[in-house]
Amino acid sequence: MNHPDDDEPQSAAAAELSACGDSAAANACPPPRTAELRALQVARDVAANRILCTTLGRGQAAAQLAEERPTAQTVCWFLDQYQQRLAIAAQPPRDNLAFTCAADAPAGTFDLAVVPLSFRGEAELARDVIQDAFAHLAIGGRLVAAVDNPRDQWLHGQLREMFPKVSVITTEDAAVYVVLKRDEQRRPRSLRCQFAYRDGSRLLQAVTRPGVFAHRRLDPGARQLIDAVPPWPEPSSPRIIDIGCGSGMVGIALAARQAEPQNVHCLSLDSNARAIQCTVEAARLNAIDGLVARLDSTGTCDTAGSYDIAVANPPYYADFRIARLFVDTAATALRPGGMLYLVTKHPAWYQENLFPFWRDTELRPSGSYFIVSSRRG
User: Fold this and answer.
1) Predicted model pTM
2) In the chain, pLDDT over 90 holds for what percent of residues?
3) Among the four residues 2, 124, 340, 359, which has the most C-beta atoms within 10 Å?
4) Which domain CATH number covers 136?
5) Listed range (192-206, 248-262, 267-281) with the worst mean pLDDT
6) N-term to C-term CA, the chain
7) CA–CA distance from 220 to each of 97, 227, 343 (Å)?
8) Angle at the Cα of 12 (from 8 to 14), degrees rounded to 5?
9) 357: left (phi > 0), else alpha (psi -120 to 50), else beta?
């Protein structure tokens, strides 16, 4: 979901609770965001032995419930491995608390699901996570969903469409909804998307899900990046690394250009578990047997100095920290003379920071973007 940065100012309600446990790690853990705090306050009144939580920050609600209920088992579910790592670092370890990163809710049944949401988040992802969490509830279990908008209508409408009865609790800064699971949801809506896109004369298949970058479409920056990478001379095939692959469309397009795409080696990395799931499925649909997709938020490649081409579409937020990680990953992965291609709307940073490993750096306009190409020294 498109959440704001973790240092977002909080309402006075956050002062009511330090949901970071009682260890020294609390100093590294920000207070819970409004929706998570309000969901936690309601969830405290629900009896449960197995609890499933999502989080807007560092797993604060899950950690607090685990501390207060030492005999209950609590799982905090993340789609993004980086966010999972931050939560693990911020929370004290507990035998009854697990932090898991997966494309879908963890296996098993739960008595309580706690789902805080931001009104600035992705709408389809909110619905998808709620459906998934509800599906993992035992009959008689309860879903507690909260959004940081006391005048919310959208989430309430979605819940009323999905479930026959929704209880509403309003506060000055949030709306909290409680659903009792009396039966399985009728006709849950599939939000997975499969569509075709072109690279020259080739028609390729893409798979996306809510929470994956550019859901339901080929991102315009990815389109420019695909078009910018020149053909690889035959008969050899390049070793490709797709850094921050999203749904995998760039790496798959480059691999599919080769005479025997099933033999091309492409390593696709992303910190989002659903991105990896979509990339694997799309590689299968396009018969790219040599593609390996790996959940990774640290930029670790399998064989350093062995790749011919690195491609990336780095995000623009986080003060270019993610862009730096992508560039450093490419520098490690590429052989001397290997080429890095990336797309950006902010070329000046790359012009100033592509050193000391890079040579022959070029920046050229491409639509509303810039293509940065550079050779590994």
Assistant:
1) 0.92
2) 87
3) 340
4) 3.40.50.150
5) 248-262
6) 38
7) 41, 11, 10
8) 65
9) alpha
